[in-house]
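Hi everyone, sorry if this is the wrong subforum. Our group has a chain we'd like a structural model of before ordering constructs, and none of us has done structure prediction before. Sequence below.
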Amino acid sequence: MGALLEQFQVTVGLVAGMLAIMGVPVFLMVLCSMLIFQIIPALLCIPTLRKAGFSAWWALPALIPGMIIPMLWTFAFIRWPRYPSDPR
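Answer:
Right subforum, don't worry. Here is the predicted structure as tokens:
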């Protein structure tokens, strides 16, 4: 429990430092851009992953900048659990 509290304190300290350096308007712009360009596409991957028979945890690499393309490339060419027979 102590480690979790320490991580929370570090996170709060980092956010407070970013607010002090950048100011509130810039911080909110960065936060909104992260929401629009990273979190929403990752959330939109989840229904497709579930239909294909994969875990929703596969959407986590989409949160890393630049990982969505390799993730989609891998997803396109691996064998899907829901469709085990290769249609080719």
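For your construct planning: The CA atoms of residues 52 and 83 lie 8 Å apart. The two ends are 52 Å apart (CA to CA).
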